[in-house]
Design brief:
This protein is mostly helical. It has one domain: Winged helix-like DNA-binding domain superfamily/Winged helix DNA-binding domain (Arc Repressor Mutant, subunit A), CATH 1.10.10.10. 59% of the residues lie in helices and 10% in strands. It has helices at residues 13-17, 26-45, 52-62, 69-76, 80-92, 114-134, 140-154; strands spanning 96-101, 104-112. A two-stranded antiparallel ribbon has the order 1-2. Helix 2 (26-45) crosses helix 6, helix 3 (52-62) crosses helix 5 and helix 3 (52-62) packs across helix 6 (114-134). The longest helix has 21 residues, at 114-134. The chain is elongated. 17% of the residues are buried.
């Protein structure tokens, strides 16, 4: 079919809509980039039996910061019930344990088990690989700048 005969139905929606005024909206762009990153991250972590959210909980538990479930919920911007479900699943798999918080016996901290640390080390490689693939079109300086700008948005002072 000649190029002039193509209709808008012949062009993929993403291509047709890229000229939309919405693509000037920073919040939309952040949400779209996040959706793409989550989909790629979940796909890469699937071979380890993880998704981005469960990987994030495991990664924080493996850092020896001993976060409480409340701290995890606040840091990850998740509802506390979601964190409970994530920790329950990781604990069922023997990857994390709940321990009493020495400074507040009413609270639990989440710590990675040896199996959890080993899985985190393997899964971290997959997570970094997908990040490199997603950011391949950016120079090192652009990646650093993007990370700094996102840190400023994520953790306003």
């Amino acid at each position: 079919m000649p190029e002039s005969a193509k209709t808008t139905r012949d062009v993929p929606a993403s291509g047709r809509l890229e000229g939309s005024a919405l693509t000037e909206d920073t919040s939309f762009l952040l949400a779209r980039a996040n959706a793409l990153a989550l989909a790629a991250g979940n796909a890469a972590l699937a071979e380890h039996g993880l998704k981005v959210r469960s990987y994030a909980v495991l990664a924080l538990a493996a850092e020896d910061t001993r976060p409480s479930q409340r701290e995890l919920a606040e840091f990850l911007r998740l509802d506390p019930s979601q964190v409970v479900a994530l920790v329950d699943e990781l604990q069922r798999r023997g990857l994390v344990a709940r321990e009493a918080d020495p400074s507040d016996r009413r609270a639990n901290v989440v710590v990675a088990t040896e199996a959890g640390r080993a899985l985190h080390a393997r899964a971290e490689h997959a997570a970094r690989s997908v990040q490199h693939r997603l950011h391949a079109g950016l120079s090192a300086a652009q990646r650093d700048q993007l990370a700094e700008l996102l840190r400023q948005l994520a953790f306003p002072s």
